[in-house]
């Protein structure tokens, strides 16, 4: 859908404990995003630049990817299979954003 609408798309894929957020920029300009993933269990396998913050039994993960026009960035970490995750995305106008995460 994001490709058709020339939007920035954020999609979550889970393969066992591996979680991948794919950020695809289908717009005609570079985008700077702020992605916050809220998870219900302690995450693992995070890149050095991401420090999870625990608050009331939830963990908050923040990424600030720069995604060039026509490019895709993948953000990956591990999470128990029974844990929930929810993403919020800032930095792109809502009408130019498609989130399936």
UniProtKB/TrEMBL annotation:
Domain DNA topoisomerase VI subunit B C-terminal: residue ranges: 1-98
InterPro entries for the chain: Top6b_C (IPR040494)
Origin: domain of life: Archaea
Record's keyword terms, sorted: Isomerase
GO molecular function, one term: isomerase activity
Pfam families named in the record: Top6b_C
Protein name in the entry: DNA topoisomerase VI subunit B
Lineage: Archaea, Methanobacteriati, Methanobacteriota, Stenosarchaea group, Halobacteria
